[in-house]
Amino acid sequence: MTSKTITRTRNFVLLTLAQVIIFSQIHLFGYATACIFTIFLLKLPRHTTQNETIIWGFLFGIITDIFCNTPGIHSAAATSMAFSRKYILAAFTHKGLPDDFIPGVKSLKWGGYIVYAIICIAIFYAVLFPLELFAIRHFTTLLISTSSSIALTMLFVIVAEFFSPNK
User: Could you tell me which of 18, 58, 8, 15 has the C-alpha nearest to residue 39?
Assistant: First the structure.
């Protein structure tokens, strides 16, 4: 195993444990829930294949679903985000970038990285909450939950970026 594989596996395990043990139990004001495992998907290198990205997304989602007793909603949301990530990232980058390009503040600058992260996380929550509520008639609750969860998750994305070794 290469050091990148070991690091990626370690990050997967740590983020999954943090998500399941800590962050899935926190619901600020009954609406906002942070899904910090999205950081892993945001920070995957650009050369990561679409299939590999989708598999990582599905694994995060299914493990969260198993431990949080949710019937596949995290799997659907994380897989949707993982699928969309390639196309969103393509809008913020150009083709001449090196293979080891990792999205972050250093490579995309603050503005680009924040917009990229918000779009990806918004896709995640746009799939998650309608499946969780399973009704559009709760539109106000849906809107409050989605926007507050995006803001809370973005707070953790920004904090993680400050501690990232790739700054």
Answer: 15
pLDDT score of 165 more than 80: no
Helix 50-68 crosses helix 3-21 at what angle (to 10 degrees)?
A: 30
Contact call for residues 77 and 116 (beta carbons, < 8 A) = no
Q: How confident is the model over 72-118, as pLDDT tens digits?
A: 899 999 999 999 998 998 888 877 777 678 888 888 888 889 999 99
DSSP alpha helix (H) spans, the chain: 3-21, 38-42, 50-68, 73-92, 105-133, 139-162
How many angstroms separate the CA atoms of 154 and 25, rounded?
18
What is the C-alpha separation between 4 and 29, in angstroms, rounded?
A: 38
pTM of the model: 0.89
